[in-house]
Every structure is written in C-alpha cells, then in structure tokens.
Amino acid sequence: MNNDGRYLRLTVLSIVGFSLILPIFLGFWQTGRAAFGLFPALGRDTLSLAPWRELVMLPGFGSSLKLTLVTGVSATVFSLLLATGFCAAVHSRVTPGAGARMLTPFLAIPHAALAVGLAFVLAPSGWIARGLAPFVGWDRPPDLATVNDTWGLALIIGLMIKEVPFLLLVILSALTQIPVAKHVSAGRALGYGRGVVWVKIIMPQVWPMIRLPVWVVLAYALSVVDVAMILGPSNPPTLAVAITRWFNAADPGQILPASAGAILQVLIIALGIAVFVLGECLVRRVGRWWLRRGGRGLSTEPGLHLASVITVVLMAIGMLAMLSLLIWSLAWRWPFPQFLPESWSLRSWTNSSSGWQRALSNTVFLAITTAVLSVALAIAWLEGEDRARRGRAAWAEALIYLPLVIPQVGFLYGLNIAFLKIGISGDMTAVIWAQAIFVFPYVMIALSDPWRGLDHRTLDSAAALGAGPFKRLVKIKLPILLRPILTATAIGVAVSVAQYLPTLFMGAGRIATLTTEAVTLSSGSDRRVTGVYAALQTMLPFVAYLAAFLIPAFLHRNRRDLNGTIQT
Amino acid sequence: MSLDLTSLTLRTPSGELLFAPLTLSVPLGDVVTVMGPSGVGKSTLLDAIGGHLTHGFCCSGSIKLNGREISTIPAETRQVGLMFQDAHLFPHLSVGDNLAFGLPSHIKGRAMRRSTVEAALKQAGLAGRYDDDSAALSGGQRARAALMRTLLAEPEAVLLDEPFSKLDSSLRDEIRHFTFSHIAARGIPALMVTHDEADAHVIGGRCIALKKPESD
C-alpha cells in the first residue's frame, strides 16, 4: 500500500534530478575543468594550476576578495541581528498574517529594482541630499561617494533592506511553532528582561528552524552580482562582479582565471557556512555557561529599541526607493536642490516604448512559464509524498535548498557551455531552464507548509466516501489550497522577474528582460529611462501578488473558512 | 455477513506492538464500542480498518467485510465510512455539495442526485440549506451533515472515532440518538472508539477493552 504513487515519485525525482540538479553539476564540471586549465575551445588541454596563478595576479583580485567577505558577512550578520531585535520588540503586537502582509512589498520587489531605487535615494544628487540641502545650504550635489563607495556601505544597506524582511518572515513563521507569549511571561516572571528572554529562551528554539534560510542569505550576499553592480564599488568590484566581467571580457583568455574565481566563489560560501556552523557550536557552549550563571541582565531594552529604529529607518528608505522609481520615470525637469520634479512628463515611457515593451513581454513570458512549470512540479512532488503517506527525507530537503546556497556565477557559465553543445544557448528554452533551477526551490518551500497543514482527516474522509487519489487531489486539495498555490506562483513570478545572471549568460545577451535592461541602464545614462524599466520590474511581482490575493477572495467569497484568515 | 477482524495486530514505525492480537466480529446492525487507555492505538485500529494508516505502521491479520478481504485494498474501495469528533466538512463546498460528494455513481441524473441530497438534508433538519456555506452550520448541524454525507455513500460499515466528544453535553444525547438510529436503520456494522462511558451505556451494545500487549 505504501507503494502507492511510486511512479509519480520516480517521475518527479527524475525531473528534479535531470533538469534541476544535473545542470548544476554539469556547470560545475565545465567550470572546474576550465579552472584547472582544460578548455579545448582555446586550445588549452593540459591540466595545470595556471588559471589560479592568473586569477591571483589579476588587478584588484585581493581587494575584490576582501570586499566580498566584508560586505557579504556584515550584511548577513547585521540583517540577522536587526531581524531578531525587531521581532523581539514587536512580536507581541503583530499577528503573523499582518506581519506577512507588511513585508510583502519588500519580498516582492526584485533586488535590482530596489538597488536602482536606492541609488536614486542615496546618491549625492538623490532624495536624501535634496532633503538636507535647504538646511545645509547645498546648491549643488555634495562631493561624497554615497553610492558605489569603496567600502561597500551602500551595497550592505541595499542587501539589508531586502534580507531583513526575508529573515523577519522566516523568524515570524518559525515563532508560530513556539508558545512565545508563555515562554516570555515565564522568563520575565523569573526576573529576566524581555530582550534577555529572547536571547536565552526564544532564539535557541528558533535557530534550528531558520538556520538554512540564514545560510541562503549568506550565500546570496557573498555572491550577488546585480545589486553589487548597481550599488557596490566599481573598481575594484566585489569578486562575483569581477568574475562576471572576466567571463564577458573581450579577451577569451580571461575565461580560465574567471573559472578559477568561480570555483573560489564556491569555496568562499562553503567557508562562510563553515564559520557560521563553528560560531553556532561556540555560542552553544558559551551560551550554556552564560545561561547557567543566571544573570538577569535587565539592560537589553536599549538594544531592542535601537534594532527597531534602524529596521524602521531601513524600511522607510526602502519605501522611498520604490517610490523614487515611479517618480523618476515620470519626471522631466528635476534640477538638484528641488525635492520634487519641476515638470512631469510621460515622454520617458513613450520614447522608450519599443524597448520596454519587448523586455516586458519577454519578462512576462519567462515569469509565467517558469512559475507555472515550477508550481506544477511542486504539486506533483507533494502529491507523491501524500500518496506514500510519508514525510520528506533529509536528503530531499537538502536537494531543494541546494540551488539556493551555491553561487550562480559558479556554474552558469559552465552550464552555458553545455547548452552550447546541445544547441540551445541563447534560446528562450535555455533561459527558462536556467531560471527554473532557482524558481522551483522558492515555490517548493512556499507551498510545502500549507500543503502539509491540510488536515489529513479531511482527506481520509474523502477517501472513505470513495474518492480515489486523483479525485482527492483535484476536488479536495487543489481547491482548498488555492490561495497558497497562487501565492507560491506569485513568489515564482517574483523570483523569475528578479533573475539577472541566468538570463544574461543563457540568453547570450540576446534575450532582454526588464532586469537585464535595468542593470545595464543603471550604470550611467538616463535616470528617467532606468526608472521606467525598474518601475515595470517592480510592478510585475506586485500584480502577481495582487492576483494571488484577489482570485481566491473572489472564488471563495461565500466560504468563510477559506476566504480570509489563512495566510501563508 | 459482518465486519470480521482476525488476529489483527498493529506495529508502530519503531516496531512497538500496540495491543494484543484482536479477534472480533461485528454482526450487521450491531455497534461495538472499543475502549482502552490512551496511546493503546484505538484510533490507529480504525485507521487500519479504514485504510488510512500512515507510512511505517504495520498491520497483520485479516480484516473481512461481508466476506471480502479488505486489508490490502485502497481506502476508497473499502466502502467503510468514517466519523470523527470534528465533522471535517470540505470547506470549499456548500452543505449540499458536501453530501453529494460521496453519492455513488449508480444514482444517475442531476435531478435524481439533487433530490437524494435534499431528502437527506431534510432528515438532518437542514432542509433548504443546500447552497449554504458549510462553515455557517452550528456544531450539531455539522455533525448531522457529516453523518448524512457518510451514509449517502452507502458504506458497508461505519467507524466512529470519539464522534461526540467535542459536542456540548446538551447536544450530545440528541446527536448520539440521531447517529445510532440512522446507522441501525441501515443495518450495517459499526465500530466506535470512545473515552465516554456514557456512549457505551446508552448504545447498550458490546464493549471491548483494548489492552497493552504482554511485555515481551
């Protein structure tokens, strides 16, 4: 009986294995060969360490490496601290549903669009400087490098505005599984301050549930390309940006050191995760000793307030960044010290219409295709688990997270070589394929909890009434889970819209999407046109989220148990 | 003709034997009450008979329903109805569509199927509520609707898992009477798991106690 659905599970596993996991290994195989001197297309066919020597000798390598480590680690650590502190301060006052709704805009906006908006806000001629101008007496933009600064501060802030909300969402959903209010009261009754209770009682329970997402954030921050191009220092840039440049350099000889850099990028992430694991062990030991001392430490309240204030400021800057995209796209004349444009115009939209319409249609097509394919695969996977009446093995969970903890730049170029061999490079198929590798995990993670949350007694009842597995899926599960399924689809759309490297490498520069165009335009040229692309890029995920909210609300308008409170 | 269990044993995924081998015959029209300490596997016994065991649970022995061995066939073909403490009405369907969900295919034609459901709704005191949201029903109404849904599927046996434990005591007698008079009218075997001595007394049928196996 437990062999029910074996064929379904085998099919799903082979699709995931062959189309999502195998390409990663193929890509790494090709990249790895090039990193050790094997690149027949350039006549290099002897195994050697030369590419690594070339890599180390490349100008700016050392600074790039240092910059990557500093920005990646500090963005992750600060995001984690802020999210934890903010949760401790506000948790008792927001329901998980309200929290998720508040965070949605930050989760939906593509990284690159937020970065473009942030550059508008932070730049010497940006909104913050314009706001200060009347008080400080600036009549021209101050001579400060507030964006692309050599320390990577703008990059760190940009990453934090995206990652703090993500971690907040993850922590809030972990907290629903803990009797937080009772533990906090119990702790406070024993004389511990609120913040101390969080550190000593709540977080040790939360950490195992958020460990993987924190690693995902770390891996992302250490290897991000698009945000680092827009906000990070340009010369030398972070390692991931440098590698992308070397891969695309005019001199094909640079592909070999670039490949070595790509492999190094994997090692950096592995090292980063190892450091976090070591840190966890250390904290566990020291923490136990610290707990047993029983210090009441009532003085954490200022820390919580500080974390809340910084988080709120970051969110406010993020909102300004989103707003500025729209305003710039509609501005015509907007001289420096003025806070709002002097004249407005639709010309930026109409003049660039042929460009953005093509990019928009490509983006919409890619987003819908990858999201629908990913959701279908996720449903098939979850249905396979149901039919076997068993949970998910640890290795299967690891398989889902794998694409999220490896650097994109590490294997996409190698994968493109493989795609060239089978003749689909530069094709829509190649881009859909490469994007799906990253869209599927998010869709799967978003859908798993609500799917498992469905009471199996309801399904047993349907079976007892004579409904077979297919009827149970189509008539019971899919309708009841309509909202989470559409939410997962919207998340898939948001992830697809945000993809930069897969589109760039696999499309071989021939497939323009809103994201590739916005990143290209952001380095100079016209802010107003950049605003058009980034605003469109922001709107698409919003439309998807809105549809995911409105469609179930309409279809289930007469079904009280389905139409409101269930949040994913 | 009856529900016959022969040397039925259940093991948890960790290999622990849940209760001593069980042999039991429930004749048509009878209700047998199963009692026993919590954790002895009363609900798991019902899962085994209905075909709803979770992966890893191991069932041995024989389960025959009207002479047909059902222990190896899928739940949806066993024709064993289920009642829980919660009604588990499908939240996306109206009251009437919930009842219609289990209606066998030999009742043909839209009008015929609709009138069968309407008649059942009337019996449950829910006349005219076909199109209502199932979430709008009260606890007692939900319990009656769930029973009607189960019986419309024409089961050959019914399993009840603490069916009245969540109802107010004032409602409990009424629903208990409603449930058992309908089951008796069908003349099918029923097996009920309960903690409530009153359930067993009122029904007056046989009562068995599941015991932990001799430790081995």
From TrEMBL, chain A:
Belongs to the binding-protein-dependent transport system permease family. Keywords: Cell membrane, Membrane, Transmembrane, Transmembrane helix, Transport. InterPro entries: MetI-like (IPR000515), MetI-like_sf (IPR035906). Residues 61-277, 360-551 form the ABC transmembrane type-1 domain. This is Inner membrane ABC transporter permease protein YnjC. Its main location: membrane. It comes from Pacificibacter marinus. The keyword Membrane applies.
Automatic annotation (TrEMBL), chain B:
It holds the Pfam family ABC_tran. Transmembrane segments: none annotated. Its EC number is 3.6.3.25. The keyword ATP-binding applies. Keywords: ATP-binding, Hydrolase, Nucleotide-binding, Transport. PANTHER family: SPERMIDINE/PUTRESCINE IMPORT ATP-BINDING PROTEIN POTA, SPERMIDINE_PUTRESCINE IMPORT ATP-BINDING PROTEIN POTA. This is Sulfate/thiosulfate import ATP-binding protein CysA. It comes from Pacificibacter marinus.
